[in-house]
Structures are given as C-alpha cells and as structure tokens.
Amino acid sequence: MKILLIHCHYRLPGGEDAVFAAERTLLEEHGHTVLTYERSNGEAARGPAGLLLPLRAVWNRRAAREVAALIRQEGVDAVHIHNTLLALSPTVVRAAKGCGVPVVQTLHNFRLFCPNGVLLRDGAVCEDCPARGLQCALRHRCYRGSLAQTAVVAAAYALHRRLGTWRGVTLLAPTEFDRAKLLEFNRLRPLFDPERLAVKPNPVRLPRQAALPWAARRDQVVFAGRLEELKGLRTVLEAWALLGPDAPELLVAGTGPLEAWARQHAGPRVRILGQLPPEELARHMAESRAVAAASLCYESFALVPAEAHALGTPVLASDLGNVGASVRPGVDGLRFAPGDAAALAAAVRQLAGMTFDCAAIAAEARRRYSEEENYRALMRAYAKDQA
Fold this sequence. Notes:
Radius of gyration: 22 Å
CATH class of the largest domain: Alpha Beta
CATH topology of the largest domain: Rossmann fold
Low-confidence stretches: none
Number of helices: 17
Strand order of the largest sheet: 2-1-3-4-7-8
Number of strands: 14
C-alpha cells in the first residue's frame, strides 16, 4: 500500500511525535510506501504568518488543498492522520475523505470533546465539556489558561462537529478505557460513527532480555516520568515518609517543575536520579519489585506501566483512568486510591508479602504490545475503513 501519514507537531516534542515516527518505521519495514505531510505549530506561529494561525486552526484551506493534491498525484491508498491542532485543522480530514480513500485518525487524547484534550481542570478530572458543551472550556479558559486560545480551539471543534467531519472516518483509541469514555461522550453529543471506533495501543519499547525472577529483584521501587503534580509525585514521596526506615528504596527518575521540591523533601530511602537514558531506566525497572504510577489524571496512554510490565515488573497504580485500567490486582500489580499517600503506603506493605510471576507478566505484555500485533491492528483499521 501507499500510505499518507499526516501530523502536526506541537511546539515541544511529545508522545504523539514518537508514535507518529514509530508507526512510520513499522509500515516501511513491512514494505509499504509511506508519504508524510507534516507541519509544526512552532514554525506556523513565527513571523507575519503567525497572525493567521487562529484562522487556520479552524479552517486551513491551503493544507486541505495540498493534502488533496498529494493524494491524487501520488495515488495514495490510505490516509492516517495523527494530530491536526493547530496548524493543520480538521479540514485535512475532510480533504482526505473527499478524495474517496480510506481515512483513519488516531485519537491521542480527548480533544474531540475537551479543548485541553486531557479532561482535567484545576488538578482534578473534569468532564464538563462532554456533558454540558464547549462553552464550559471558555468559562474556565481551559486551553493554556487563555480565553482567546480556548476560543480558537473550541470554535474549530464546534464547527467541524456540525459539519460531520469525523463521520465515515475510522478512529483509533490507544486503550479500552479511552474507547469506553469516547463512546460515552459520543452518546451525549454524537459526532463519529461508534462502530468505527477501534483500539490500537501505542508502540512500546520491548526488551530482549528475559524478565528477572521475583526472588532475584532488589528491594526497590521506581517512579519514572515528568516530575509534576499530575503524575502524583507528592503522593509518592508522602507515602515513603509514612513508610519510614523500613521502606524499600525509591528511585525517582525524570525531570520537571517539582524536581527541586523533590530533592528537598526526599527522605533517606529516596534517591532522585534526574533524567536517565532509556536503557538505564529500563535496567532499574527490570531489577525492581515494582514501578509506582500515581497519576492524578486519566492519562492518554499508560506508557510507564506498559514498559514496566514488558520487563515483568508489577505496577503500583492509582485507581484512575488508563493507569488503573492497566493493572490486574494481584496478577501484575496493585491499585490504590489516587492522591492517597496512606493507601499507597499500604499497597507497598502488601507488596512485601507477595510473590509475582514476572515471566508471565512480561510474556503477556510483550504479546499485547509486539510490533506484529501493532502492525496487524493498523491493517485491521485500514481494512475496516475500506469496508
């Protein structure tokens, strides 16, 4: 097949860019010809052209024209869209549909129903926009704390909802939790065909080495991710303070706005490692009894738990959204109430008396997130759209 991938990069690199790049490589390795149409919000905002960015975020006529021309001139067989905000706009979806080719879009977040994309406001889960309408986002300035920028995003999605832009498009959610939420919201405000919403997990780095047995693991727990409020770092450090000197060693890997606070409040059983190379982080996770995932929001895809499970490492997960849904208590980890340091401390104590089948945890994760399964899921999506 000849496949066109469409993606708008945010100003700062993120997980969506990594998925876009990984799936491009995967398709090429399976013999497909891959074309790309890419734009960057950083570049689009510079110079005089930046004045037009708000208008183009709603309706980018030039991008639509260029996408349609590329599809026709190159004889594209299928189009796979990742992000369209802000520099592309959903008009590229309409342009691809107008060419009569199968169109697939990965929903990396909840942007169809929530302008900030993550169903979060003031540090807590918020579902006002799906339930009551996009005007809720305007009232709270949910996109970057700006009324003007929130208005642009809300206008773009309000217009394309009315136009039925996502009708006839196969949509991919990264998890079953996301799919269930999207279907719930779509029943309230229909904007896509529910039978066209499928699940395809994001690519996950899979290790080559065998999982270390439970008995051979160190008495330590890893917290990995951006050091910020939403990842639950405060909850984790407070839990270790409650555990006292008998706590397993806690390794904190990452950087972010709470790094200085973490270094100041780290107890004697806590080591702040900073940002680690992926290989070094994987080694620590593979040697540990557990990985702590204490997120306070739904998360778009629980990547750290997925990588931990691929190493055979159980996860101590906040019972919320994709993080909580990624864990089967007693099988590949334990859950605790989000934001509850005492509950996390209790889970750590419970963990000390348990045994896990690390090889089985790794085998299941590696099957679920294998490149071949990822590729088959893409092919099923393209075939679904052709049907």
